[in-house]
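Two proteins were folded this term; both appear here.
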Amino acid sequence: MNALVDQLCHRLVVSCQAYPGEPMRDPDTMRRVALATARGGAAGIRAQGLADIAAIRAAVDLPLIGLWKDGDDDVFITPTLEHALAVADAGAHVVALDGTSRPRPDGRTLAETIAAVHERTGALVMADCSTFDEGIAAAAAGADLVGTTLAGYTAYTTKGDGPDLDLVARLAAALDVPVVAEGRIHTPEQAAQALRAGAWTVVVGTAITHPSTITGWFAAAVQEAASCR
């Protein structure tokens, strides 16, 4: 097993991302968020965008999973080989990319993309998948880690309220590569459940680093309680 991947074993990775147009959509802000989560015990960081990746890599001495969201097509998480190479060049130790069965914009297969990233940069690759079959195929294509990131976010999968723990368990039982639980993990207990289901590591984003959403959860609960008085 790769030493960097070993550092993430049964540990927490925090996704430090902000959506376009939001007040926190700034590389230096994300750098500071990453520093804060590292102080809180994060074992790794997941970041989006070349400037964010570079800023965080320079400031935080933790394994860094990088991606580049680009385009309006179904495949927009590091959609092409050029995107993947740029993510690695920006400082990501692990390049996260779309690992679904959908066609990639540059026409390359997932296996071709992964092989090129390995050969040209030496970075590892995390495949963001949405189904069991996609996870199996991604591992066969050479992915170093397989994530459940896109479960519920493709047209052919169903989005639940919480993480897809069944998918985590099935992939963990079937694969020799580490399985990353990611997607709709909103509580510490859900994170623990993901590890008990067999995840190598757990990625949490919104529930830690997205104040607008977290505030919305509290505001809705307070409003609901007030309406009952």
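Next, the second protein.
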Amino acid sequence: YKTKKPNKAAVTQLLNLEFESRRQFINSDAIKEQDRAVKILEAYPCFRELDHVLDELRRIIQPSNLKYISEMKDRWEIFYSKVQFYGVMKKVMKPPKTLDGGN
């Protein structure tokens, strides 16, 4: 990962292969809680990139589902559009108030 343009596919493959040892390192008591994030980023600078962080999330939550992140993004889009719709509808359906503020 020290090259100017690291190969994302190669980095992902290495992260897949060493997942168990990385989880042991992260969960170990050797790292103080307050230093944990700094030590992880020192050991794994690739986690400064969102793609690698999302891949790690997939490895933790659903290791066998390679399409997990894209499915989550799709589900989020559907959820977000429904929330927006219901929010707008609630605002539109609000009963009118009289001039004196009473109903």
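The mean pLDDT is 84. The two ends are 65 Å apart (CA to CA). These notes refer to the second protein only.
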